[in-house]
Amino acid sequence: MADVCGMGKMKIPIEKGLWKESELPDEKPRLIGSKCTNCGEIYFPRRNNGRCLRCYGKAVVGIKLSNKGKIASFTIIERAPAGGFYKGPVPYAYGFVDLSDDVRIRTLYGKNLAKLKVGMEVELFIDTLYEDEQGNEVTTFKFQPVETKY
């Protein structure tokens, strides 16, 4: 789903169906995954063919995943990779997050890259990755450190 972001430009998700935007002011976006109702295995991204890779059952349903987790690993990339497959800003951080749903996902990190630490609690947010040739904002999901409130 693309949203208009002013002046006829659109916000376009990098891939449809990865997350659900918030519908209420206090609600945060959530990633969309799958869960096998046979064995309980959870997947991200969502399994579109409806078959579990663990038990081979056909009872896989879509679920909203947690929007919080802990950093399992990360690396900060200082230079854009060759080949042009990454179009976002540099430096950027990339790694794995363990969600509270017992699933590990691959992700980009955003905001406060210097503060990232393995084991740190992070939360999901949607961010612009790059502008396409038409000036539309291509968006993706990222994780950032949870802001501590005192």
From the alpha carbons, calculate the radius of gyration and give it in angstroms. 17 Å
How far apart are the termini? 37 Å
| Strand adjacency order, main sheet | 7-8-9-11-10
The number of helical runs is 0
Task: Tell me about the largest β-sheet.
Answer: 5 strands, mixed, barrel
Helicity level, as a percent range?
A: under 10%
What's the number of domains?
1
Oligomer: single chain
Arithmetic mean pLDDT: 88
Low-confidence parts: none
Order of helical and strand elements: EEEEEEEEEEE
Strand content: 35-45%
Form type? globular
Number of strands: 11
Name the structural class: mainly beta
Brief summary of the model shown:
With 150 residues, the protein is mostly beta strands. It has strands spanning 3-4, 10-13, 19-20, 30-36, 42-43, 60-64, 68-77, 92-99, 103-109, 121-131, 137-145.
Protein architecture, described:
It is built from no helices and 11 strands. It has 150 residues and is an all-beta fold. It has one domain. The strands form 2 sheets. Strands 7-8-9-11-10 form a 5-stranded mixed β-barrel. Strands 3, 4, 5 and 6 form a 4-stranded antiparallel sheet that branches. A hairpin with a 5-residue loop joins strand 4 and strand 5 (42-43). The radius of gyration is 17 Å and the shape is globular.
Key terms:
mainly beta; single chain; 45% strand; 0% helix; five-stranded mixed beta barrel; globular; four-stranded antiparallel beta sheet; 150 residues
